[in-house]
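## retry 2 of 3
previous attempt timed out at serialization; input unchanged, resubmitting
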Amino acid sequence: MTAILSVEPTASAPALRLRPWRAEDAVALVAAHRDPLLRRWLTTSLVSDTEARRWIDDQSEGWAAGVRLSFAVLECGGEERDPGRPVGHIVVKATDPNEAAATVGYWTSAEVRGQGIASRALEVVSRWALGAQRIMPLARLDLLHAVDNHGSCRVAEKCRYVLRSVLPAQPPAFPHKGHLHVRMNSDM
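## retry succeeded, writing output
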């Protein structure tokens, strides 16, 4: 089971379509990962089409298992039926099968960064994940980012994720201190 989500256009921004990643997205995925700022914050950097296709296959397996719900974020052109190439990513990852909690993560490609795409897409995914979807029933979403990733902090705050704590660095996977933001289904 998968899902396709839509974000309405605003006066200054086009509509967005969120759908599972597809094999044909590999080129756009590798292009996005060439951005040094994006690579600074990600734990995985994809440098080849082969790596990107393997990553996309992993996302498909996550959907099939209901433990990693990964969306490509596409800007819609003039017609919503004809979205362009992926310009971002949102994921909801199960943290503990015995808890109704998951972690969310996101990024946007360099050419659209700062245009509100991450916050618009995260808000729709958060409402969906904490709402009526039954793939991974959730009561809480955790959002983690490096303390000095101010853009991610702004996105979290815009989407009503409350800062709960500052986490210590845990090298090598997390070399910097982090913020833990939380959103509950009661915050909807």
